[in-house]
Amino acid sequence: MDPPATARRAALLFLLLAALAWLAVQRGWVEVPPRHNPWAPLDLEATPNWLTGWKLSRATADDARCMQVLEQAAMAWVDLPDRVTGPGCGFSNAVRIDRTRFRVGEPFPLTCRAAVSLALWEAHVLEPAAREHLGSDLVAIEHYGSYACRNVYGRETGRRSQHATADALDVAGFRFSDGRRVRVLADWDARALVDGEASPEARFLLAAHRGACRFFDAVLGPEYNRAHADHFHVDRGGFRACR
C-alpha cells in the first residue's frame, strides 16, 4: 500500500476514534472526571491543567455560557446594558465589578470574558504568589481603570485600544494584609527576569505578570515599553502577547 493511502487510513481511523470518544462522553457511557473532560464547564476554582485554556476559550466565546461561568466567581458585580459611545467604542456582555476576591477601589466595567480571566488570575496566580513570595494575604488591587473610548496610547489616529471595548484592565499595584503596598512603578526589577536576585516584592510582580499570560490574551508590562512602566495591561483582545 502506498504511503499516502496509509496516511489517509490512519487519519480516518483517528477521526473515527475521536468521534466515538466524544459520543461516549456526551452520552455518559464513559465516566470522565470534570477536570479531564474537555466538554465539562469551566470551574474557576479548580486547579488549572492542560484543558483550562480550551475551556476558557469555549466558555467565553458564548455570551450566555460566559455569564454562567462568571456566576461562580468570587466577585460582586452587576450586569451592564450594551453600550455604544462612538466609532469602535462601547461594550457588550459586560459587567460592573464592585469587588473581586479583593478590594478594587473604584468600580470598573469589564466584558464577561475579561472578568472570567481576571477571576482565574486572582485565584490561581495572585493569591498563591502573595503567600509564596511575601508571606502575606493579598487584600486589594490598585488599578488605573478599564473602559476608555480611545486609540492605542491615546493617539489621535490608529487602531482602537482594547480599553475602548472594556476588554482591558490596567493594574498598578497591590496591597497586603501586613500593610505592605507593592507598586509596579516602584517595585518592578528586571533582575528578577534574569537571575531571581531581586526583592520579594519584585519576585511577586514577576510571578503576577507571568501568570497573567496563562489567562489573558495580551499582558504588557515595564519590559514592553515606557508607556507601561507603571502598570500591567491585561486584556482579552485581538492578539496574543506576553511582554
Account of the protein in words:
The protein is of the alpha+beta class. It is built from seven helices and eleven strands. It has helices at residues 3-26, 52-60, 63-70, 112-134, 184-187, 191-194, 200-212; strands at 76-80, 83-86, 89-91, 94-99, 108-111, 138-145, 168-176, 181-183, 218-220, 232-235, 241-242. Strands 6, 7, 8, 9, 10 and 11 form a six-stranded mixed β-sheet that branches. The protein has a three-stranded antiparallel β-sheet with strand order 1-4-5. A two-stranded antiparallel sheet has the order 2-3. Helix 3 (63-70) runs parallel beside helix 4 (112-134) and helix 4 (112-134) packs antiparallel against helix 7. It starts with a helix and ends with a strand.
Key terms for this structure?
243 residues; alpha+beta; 6-stranded mixed beta sheet; 3-stranded antiparallel beta sheet; 7 helices; 11 strands; globular
Biggest sheet character: 6 strands, mixed
First-to-last CA distance? 50 Å
What coarse outline follows from CA principal-axis ratios?
globular
Q: What radius of gyration results from the CA coordinates?
A: 21 Å
Helix and strand succession?
A: HHHEEEEEHEEEHHHEEE
Oligomer: single chain
Low-confidence stretches: none
Strand content: 15-25%
- Would you tell me the overall average pLDDT? 89
Total number of helices: 7
